[in-house]
Write a structure and sequence with these properties.
Blueprint: H1 11-22, E1 29-33, H2 40-52, E2 68-72, H3 78-85, H4 98-107, E3 118-123, H5 130-141, E4 147-153, H6 161-164, E5 168-171, H7 177-187, H8 193-202, H9 207-215, H10 219-231, H11 237-246, H12 252-270, H13 275-294, H14 302-315
Helix pairs in contact: 1-2, 4-5, 7-8, 7-9, 8-9, 10-11, 10-12, 10-14, 11-14, 12-13, 12-14, 13-14
InterPro entries: DNA_Rep/Repair_Clamp_Loader, P-loop_NTPase
Protein name: DNA polymerase III subunit delta
Pfam families: DNA_pol3_delta2
């Protein structure tokens, strides 16, 4: 790879992008499609840097390059914006707004600043406001010369068919266990073998989720979740242990990671489950998905949240054999 960029498990996507850049008729809009946590965010930024890179020059920092424009979730309010400026964790707005799209479109009335190419990243395109989608469609229908769009999407079905039809799809695959292990060893070299094994088991092929599980130290929570699924929790003892493992004042990031972990362990239980149990798992997974969507902006009581997660897992527990 000309830039030295390496995407474990996604080398085919990167080769396809480099081949497109080198071609004479590169498509103007790309849909980076795949489950959350597969590295699409980092890929989009590296792809944009490669696109605007000067001949024989180094790939620039996409966050500061004048010809790379990134539309993503803004801070929720002024206080959260101050936290972002200070490098602290901050809450974001639910959607990417039409005002952000319009500001981007105003820039498209001028030529690229340093070269003849410009990259527009929308991350994630799934979260565009309805009016923002309609505004974006106009730019995709009549793109300025030298402007290329990279739309990150975790759920392409949520995008309008008119958006999807104007994009070339670049698919991102889940990673094999050995590839996940390589990612963890590279990014969290201090993680021990037990932590790596638990993260790989729970991540469902997602390197982003695997790294989150390791960094949030969710090994104990993972073991308890599996125990609840196997045994149930009629006396609430395991749910109490789960709350203790979660901690009295967990960060929002830890709460989100626990929700993702619970969803993953439920999915892993589907295979081989009876039809009746599968329906219970699907129902519990749907509730967890709703909670996961609300968690970034709702102020959940952490203790009640983990107890609810435990209760949902217990509701799908493997039925005990009837005594003879």
């Amino acid at each position: 790879m000309t830039t030295g960029t390496s995407f474990i498990g996604q080398d085919a996507a990167w080769r396809e992008w480099l081949a497109a850049i080198a071609s004479e008729r590169m498509h103007h809009a790309w849909l980076l499609s795949g489950a959350k946590g597969l590295g699409k965010r980092a890929f989009a930024r590296a792809a944009a840097a490669e696109l605007v890179r000067e001949p024989r020059g180094k790939a620039p920092d996409p966050a500061t390059h004048p010809d790379v424009h990134i539309l993503e979730h803004l801070p929720a309010n002024d206080d959260e914006a101050k936290k972002k400026a200070e490098g602290k964790p901050f809450q974001t707005k639910r959607n990417i707004t039409i005002d952000q799209v319009r500001q981007m479109q105003q820039r498209l009335t001028t030529r690229p600043t340093l070269g003849n190419r410009r990259a527009i990243i929308i991350d994630p395109a799934d979260d565009l406001e309805k009016n923002a989608v309609n505004a974006l469609l106009k730019s995709l229908e009549e793109p300025p010369v030298g402007t290329y769009f990279l739309l990150v999407t975790h759920q392409p079905g949520r995008l309008l068919p008119t958006i999807r039809s104007r994009c070339r799809i670049l698919r991102f695959a889940t990673l094999a266990p050995d590839e996940l292990d390589a990612v963890i060893r590279r990014d969290v070299p201090e993680a021990d073998s037990d932590a790596r094994a638990a993260a790989i088991s729970a991540a469902q092929g997602s390197p982003g989720m695997a790294l989150t599980f390791v960094e949030q130290d969710l090994g104990g929570i993972h073991r308890l979740m599996l125990q609840i699924l196997r045994e149930g929790d009629a006396d609430f003892h395991l749910r109490g242990a789960l709350a203790g493992e979660m901690g009295a004042r967990p960060t929002r990031e830890r709460q989100l990671a626990a929700l993702e972990l619970a969803r993953s362990v439920l999915v892993s239980e589907l295979t081989g489950a009876s039809r009746a149990r599968q329906l219970k798992i699907i129902e519990a997974h749907g509730t967890l998905t709703r909670l996961n969507m609300q968690a970034p902006t709702y102020n959940f009581d952490a203790g009640l949240l983990i107890m609810e997660i435990g209760g949902l897992l217990a509701s799908t527990a493997m039925p005990r054999e009837t005594a003879r």
